[in-house]
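Structure tokens please, single chain.
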Amino acid sequence: MKKFFSALALAATLAASGAVSGQAQEIKVGLALPEGMADFDFINGMYETFKTEVEANTDMTVDLVYGGALGAPNDRLAQMRRGVIQMSDSADGNIATVFPDIQILNMPYLFSTVDQARAVLDGPFGDKLAESLREKTGIKVLGWWESGGFKHFSANKPIATPADMKGLKMRVLGPLATIPVEALGASAAPVAFSELYTSLKTGVVDGQDNSVTVFNLVKLYEVQSNLSLTGHTYAFGPLGINDAFFSGLDADKQAAVTAAAEKAIAFNRETSSAKDAAAVGFARDNGVEVLELDADAKAAFAEVMQPVAVEWLRENVDTPALIDEAISAAASK
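Here you go.
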């Protein structure tokens, strides 16, 4: 009888292992954007590159579920953490709801160039932050992607100095955007992205901040006459995967997933940079007055915006010591 129950237990264990193994053959990915959005292929195309590489080099399949069909961003993030799905295109703002330390990278003027930002994210500081994210949330970072490079301010008047922001109603989201904007003398309004165009057109808000690529994508050139290349915040996100799922793969599949992620990130960055470079000319061609700020002009904005952001971060992140580490890492690049 004891042998019978031992055999039964072994059979159950093998069956469970088989079920896990079977599940491990599919990577389900929840995406926000609809399929085929050429202007945003630095996001969807990144995951499509990942799918192509994984399926070409393993027996796994990658199921890309587009258009928010699996829920809102924070819902998909929760599903990824639980292992209901394996990956999601959660950006930094979503991750901040479960890992506040990631907001350190949203510090205004932490980075001055895309190359500097990438060097920090790909270096020891980025690795340390990624490991902390994995330990605290169960999300393994396979790489850091970007969304059009830097964010800039737009309005219906030139913004050349901090004083030009005074009295404007600006659509920005989150404390690390709101607090610095208010320090510049503007008021902040948390308008939903879907309502941004209409809010600018009707005067609910006077201006906003996004990358130039996003500015063009939603045709803000129709409702904003001026764009100032302030470059105050770098737009990024982690290419994450459920860590328990990844850890359950054999060594060859882990290597294949890691290699696929590297190619996906390379595609993302190349495409993001190309879109950003072309975006300024496109905005100008559509009647927008684009103001390029020199280093001194940006330093004037940084002098106002960064200290209040750092003060907020020291009170609201889990690991305040990382703030100075991030600043040091950026300064060394």
